[in-house]
Amino acid sequence: MSGPVPDAFDPLVTDEQRDPHELYRGMRARCPVAHSDRFDGFWALTRYDDIRTVLTDPATFITSEQNVVPAVAFTGRRPPLHLDPPEHRRYRQPLSPIFGGQRVARLEPELRRLIAELLDPLIARGRGDFGIEVAVAFPVHAFAHVLNVPVELMERINDIAVRYNGALQDADHDEVKRQSLALYEVAHEVVAARERTPGDPAIDPTTALLQARPDGEPLPRDMVVGTVRQVLVVGIIAPSVVLGSIVKHLAEDGDLQGRLRREPALIPAAIEEFLRLYSPYRGFARTATKDVELGGVRIPKGDPIAMVFTSADRDEAVFDDPDSFDLDRAADHLAFGLGPHRCPGAPFARLQLRVALEELLARTHRFERDGPVTMTRWPEYGVRSLPLRVESQTTPRADRSRSSSSE
After folding, report:
1. What is the DSSP code (8-state) at residue 267?
2. 20 to 30 A Cα–Cα from 390, which one of 74, 151, 219, 291?
3. Class of domain 77-275+328-405
C-alpha cells in the first residue's frame, strides 16, 4: 500500500488558537488521513467519502473496541453505541419509535414552554450568555422531560451535565470520571423508578427498554442502565453546541436573521444547512478489524479511527462553496452519522433546534454578539459561551434606539 506520509496534528490546540476549518481544508487537500500521537495515538479521517465508507461498513469498522477519541468509557459498555450489529439493535429497537417524528411531535408544546422559560430572563435583561444560560440548559430540560423525571431530578441532571461537559472541555479526566459516575447514579435511579412504577412503553424510553424481549428474555439490567446513561450524554451535549453555533451565525448575519424572522417557514431548511456547517462531532471513532487502506494510507488493524464530521461536511468534493450558508443545498450532511449507528434521536434534535430558533426569533427584534465567544474543544465542535445583546420584539422603538446609543 502506498500513499502520502500522514501529517501529525494536535487536536488539543483550541479553536480560538487555530481556525479548525482552515486546518481541515489543508488536511483534505494535502493529507486526508492524518495521524496524531495524542490520546495514545489515532487516525483522523477528514474527507466525506472516506468517512462514508467507514460508516457503511460495520463489519470492518466496529464500535465495540473504541467508539470515541479520546476513550472516555470509564464504567463499562453503554449500548447501543458501544455494541456492534446485530447486538446493538436489541437496544435501538425499543428506543427508535419513541424518538421518531410522529412520537416526538407531541412534545412540541412542552418544548416551547421550556425554551420560553430560559429565553425570557435573558431577553428581559437585554443581554446575557446564550451559550451558558440557554443552549446548555435547554437540551437537558428537554431530555429530562422525555425521560419523565421529576423536576428535582431534572435540575440535578442539569447540574451534573454542566459539570461533565465543562470537565470534558477542560480535559479534566478525573472530573469527567466523577461526573460520569454521577450520571450513572441518575440512570440507576431512573431505572429503579420505572421498575417500581412502569410508564407507557410507547413514550417512556426506560420502560420500553425494561419491557423489551428481543429474544424472549429481558435485557440485562446493567445494560439498560448503561443505555439510559449513554442517551443522557448524547442527547444533551450535541444539541447544545449546535444551537450555540446557529445563534452565533445569526448574531453575525443580520440579513439572514431578519429573513428567517420574516419567513419562519424557511427555518427547517436552514437548520439542515446549519447542521452541515456546524456538525458537532469530530471524535466519534471506529476500529478496523483488519489492515485497511483509506485515502491512500495504510491503517493497521486495531488502531482507533476518528471520523471528523466537522471536516467532512465542508468537503469541497461534495459541497460547492462549502464554507457558505446555502438554503438550496441538496447534498446530504453527516451530522447525524450514517449506517446502522445513525443517530436515532435525530427527529428529536431537529425538533429542539426548530422550536428554539422559532421562539428566539419570534421574541426578539434582533440580537448580536456582545463579547468574545468561547468554543468547545475536541471531540466536539461548536459554541460553549456566547454573549449576546438582545432587543425584545416588544421593546418600544425609541427605547431600542436609546439602548443601542448608550452602549
Report:
1. H
2. 151
3. mainly alpha
